[in-house]
Amino acid sequence: MKGRLQIYDIVIISLLTSFLFIQEQILTFMPNIQLTIFLIVLYSKKLGWLKTSLIVTIHVLLDSFYTSSFGIIYTPYIYIGLMLIPLTLTTIFKKINNHILLGLLGILFSIIYSWLFLIPFVFILEVNPYLYIASDIPFQILLSASSFLSIIVLYEPTSNLFDHLLKKN
């Protein structure tokens, strides 16, 4: 039935959520170097809005509890930042499938994700916004570069493998 999740879908969502979570934990020793944005871009393009939003929701909750960052300062902004990816890739950027353009969108997603944290840091923690931005620039560059490079290098081969494994055309 269209619109309902089948057991196959639940298994796929579980496996892909696990992969998303595990890769992020494995790469935590390198600040802002990750495959998270790449994977959410891939999932958005291959699975659509519903399944990808479930993956992101489960991932954010699991990650927030695991890292003890569950709360108003981090969790809502992580969720919004990551949910913007499937939301935009299944609507306004739906027709973009070129890995270079997706890589450029990865840079945009990275910047938006990083800048969302300005809100709680300035208004809740009362951090000077100029100091926050200045100190965050190297981390934004790392996140943008890792997102861009992972998408342009890995998107096409992983997309093809994804299609083959899930028997999609």
TrEMBL record:
<feature type="transmembrane region" description="Helical">
    <location>
        <begin position="6"/>
        <end position="27"/>
    </location>
</feature>
<feature type="transmembrane region" description="Helical">
    <location>
        <begin position="100"/>
        <end position="125"/>
    </location>
</feature>
<keyword id="KW-0472">Membrane</keyword>
<feature type="transmembrane region" description="Helical">
    <location>
        <begin position="72"/>
        <end position="93"/>
    </location>
</feature>
<protein>
    <recommendedName>
        <fullName>Rod shape-determining protein MreD</fullName>
    </recommendedName>
</protein>
<feature type="transmembrane region" description="Helical">
    <location>
        <begin position="137"/>
        <end position="155"/>
    </location>
</feature>
<keyword id="KW-1133">Transmembrane helix</keyword>
<keyword id="KW-0812">Transmembrane</keyword>
